[in-house]
């Protein structure tokens, strides 16, 4: 995964706490290694298992087109000359910047990243970029102490870290009065979501330090903006659940425990909301973001956070009704059903088991290490922190519940033998109508015999069971948890639109289209 500012453990501590090696040092051992390196022609040889094996050239054959290389196990291997790449001198071992390597080859880069990773150094610069290798376990490198160590320091002063990139962006913004962008890219499971959260954690912490002694950078109601009000139009929506990390701040675990203002906390707490509605377990990632996002944080001229906006794109709505057996739907469905909140479940006419719902039961329901009940609590805390009233929250969960109920609508072919569909069990459609506030007759008619335009006339068209099933799936996609449609949040101001009204309109529009 790489982060670019359009801009491990001890390895991330400021230099001196842990020497990351690199090109420093002139010990006898290093001198010996350099002399040994100079005595032979060291190369990398491609290997199916290891990627690349180190070796040295014994001799060249066929006018240099083939080289015989001695490998670590003592064997010799003939390799086409174009397949080998030169090793970098020992002084570049653990180099903090890939761009410094004398021989910039795939083998050299892999070796450098691997050596660093094995020592807990997950971050490495590559010119302007920062490369992060996913450690798949928590490292003590995101604490308040580390934030303080990176704050206002030059990149060269500390070991590579995502905080250094965030700090550079912050300083460029304040010094040059220019917008800064961080691009986070990588394949699924690479760590984009986690590192994005670390960036926000860092910016929130640093911004909180800039705030007056009140402890909050700004009260949400009284933003002091450097830009026009129009530039502050926002729509907070989601965030990925730092299932394991940042969402839990402030925590007692030493990670991000500093006192943050309300606005900073609201920005951080967007994560569990966004992840609940937009993330799902996939075969590659237990907490995969099923959407792209653009996070914008607005600062005052003094570096306090004034507001935030998260846009999301291309939410994989089809996951609601269709996914591989080895994957789950969006977290929120399981969190709600496993909330243990009997009152809420009864209001929403739900049982507490994913196995009772057609849209959930055909694929995976449990994820190792993921406790939906605990995540539910984090979601409710986040919704409270961001400022949604109990009524507004109930409206969100009505949408979630109505999708589950729509999936359970049972359809059959008409008894007359015609292909026309009929509702087999009216209980589920009654539940849907109750939750969405749609008249039952109207929804049934719209599903089974919608009015369609034929020329200038409107006529009722009977649908087959297959057509109705397709229609209910499309209906779910229309009303699926896309809170961006419903949330508008800016500099602490957030309002929920008439969700129910929207849902009904969306539902009827979908059915009558
Ligand atoms: N810096 C990190 N420290 C600890 N764990 C990490 C770190 N980065 C990633 N992980 C682990 O890897 C998992 C996958 O990371 P993440 O969700 O950030 O990937 P992603 O690139 O956003 O994937 P997707 O594109 O599927 O959303 C996380 O849930 C977390 O367990």
UniProtKB/TrEMBL annotation:
- List the residue ranges forming a coiled coil, or say none: none
Which residues does ATP bind? 186-193
What are the residue boundaries of the Myosin N-terminal SH3-like domain, all occurrences included?
Answer: 38-89
Q: Which GO terms describe its biological process?
A: actin filament organization
Which parts pass through the membrane? Answer: none
Provide ranges: composition bias, Polar residues: 215-244
Report which superkingdom the organism of origin falls in: Eukaryota
**Boundaries of each Myosin motor domain copy?**
93-513
Alphabetized, the UniProt keywords read: Actin-binding, ATP-binding, Coiled coil, Motor protein, Myosin, Nucleotide-binding
Pfam family for this entry, one? Myosin_head
| Annotated GO MF terms | actin filament binding; ATP binding; microfilament motor activity
Q: Does the keyword Ribonucleoprotein apply?
A: no
Q: What do the Gene Ontology cellular component annotations say?
A: cytoplasm; membrane; myosin complex
Spell out the residue ranges making up region: Disordered. 215-256
> Which family is this sequence assigned to?
Belongs to the TRAFAC class myosin-kinesin ATPase superfamily. Myosin family.
Q: Which PANTHER family is this protein grouped with? A: MYOSIN (PTHR13140), MYOSIN-11 (PTHR13140:SF857)
Q: What is this protein called?
A: Myosin motor domain-containing protein
Query: Which organism is the protein's source?
Result: Pseudomicrostroma glucosiphilum
Instruction: Read off the lineage from the record.
Output: Eukaryota, Fungi, Dikarya, Basidiomycota, Ustilaginomycotina
């Amino acid at each position: 995964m790489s982060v670019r500012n359009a801009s491990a453990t001890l390895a991330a501590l400021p230099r001196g706490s842990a020497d990351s090696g690199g090109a420093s040092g002139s010990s006898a051992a290093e001198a010996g290694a350099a002399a040994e390196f100079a005595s032979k022609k060291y190369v990398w040889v491609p290997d199916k298992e290891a990627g690349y094996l180190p070796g040295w050239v014994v001799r060249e054959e066929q006018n240099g087109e083939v080289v015989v290389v001695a490998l670590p196990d003592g064997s010799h291997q003939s390799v086409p000359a174009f397949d080998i790449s030169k090793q970098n001198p020992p002084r570049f071992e653990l180099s903090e910047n890939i761009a410094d390597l004398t021989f910039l080859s795939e083998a050299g880069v892999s070796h450098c990243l691997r050596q660093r990773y094995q020592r807990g150094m997950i971050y490495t610069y590559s010119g302007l970029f920062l490369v992060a290798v996913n450690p798949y376990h928590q490292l003590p490198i995101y604490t308040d102490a580390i934030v303080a160590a990176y704050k206002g320091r030059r990149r060269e002063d500390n070991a590579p870290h995502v905080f250094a990139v965030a700090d550079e962006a912050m300083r460029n913004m304040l010094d040059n009065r220019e917008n800064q962008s961080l691009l986070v890219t990588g394949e699924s499971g690479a760590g984009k979501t986690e590192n994005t959260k670390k960036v926000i954690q860092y910016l929130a912490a640093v911004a909180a330090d800039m705030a007056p002694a009140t402890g909050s950078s700004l009260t949400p109601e009284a933003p002091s903006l450097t830009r026009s009000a129009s530039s502050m139009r926002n729509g907070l929506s989601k965030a990925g659940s730092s299932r394991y990390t940042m969402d839990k701040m402030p925590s007692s675990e030493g990670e991000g425990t500093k006192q943050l203002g309300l606005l900073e906390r609201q920005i951080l707490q967007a994560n569990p909301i966004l992840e609940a509605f937009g993330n799902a377990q996939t075969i590659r990632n237990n907490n995969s973001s099923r959407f792209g996002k653009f996070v914008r944080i607005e600062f005052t001229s003094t570096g306090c956070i004034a507001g935030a906006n998260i846009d999301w794109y291309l939410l994989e709505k089809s996951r609601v009704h269709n996914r591989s057996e080895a994957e789950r739907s969006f977290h929120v469905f399981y969190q709600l059903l496993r909330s243990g909140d009997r009152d809420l479940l009864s209001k929403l006419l739900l049982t507490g088991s994913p196995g009772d719902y057609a849209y959930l039961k055909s694929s995976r329901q449990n994820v190792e290490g993921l406790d939906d009940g605990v995540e539910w609590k984090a979601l409710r805390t986040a919704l409270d922190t961001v400022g949604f009233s109990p009524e507004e929250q109930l409206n969100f969960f009505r949408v979630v519940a109505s999708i589950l109920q729509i999936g359970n609508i049972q359809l059959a072919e008409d008894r007359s033998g015609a292909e026309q569909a009929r509702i087999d069990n009216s209980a589920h459609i009654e539940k849907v109508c109750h939750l969405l506030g749609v008249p039952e007759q109207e929804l049934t008619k719209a599903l089974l015999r919608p009015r369609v335009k034929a020329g200038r006339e409107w006529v009722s068209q009977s649908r087959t069971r297959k057509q109705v099933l397709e229609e209910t799936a499309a209906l779910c996609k229309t009303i699926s948890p896309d809170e961006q449609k419903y949330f508008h949040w800016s500099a602490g101001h957030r309002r929920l639109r008439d969700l129910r009204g929207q849902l009904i309109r969306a539902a009827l529009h979908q059915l009558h289209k």
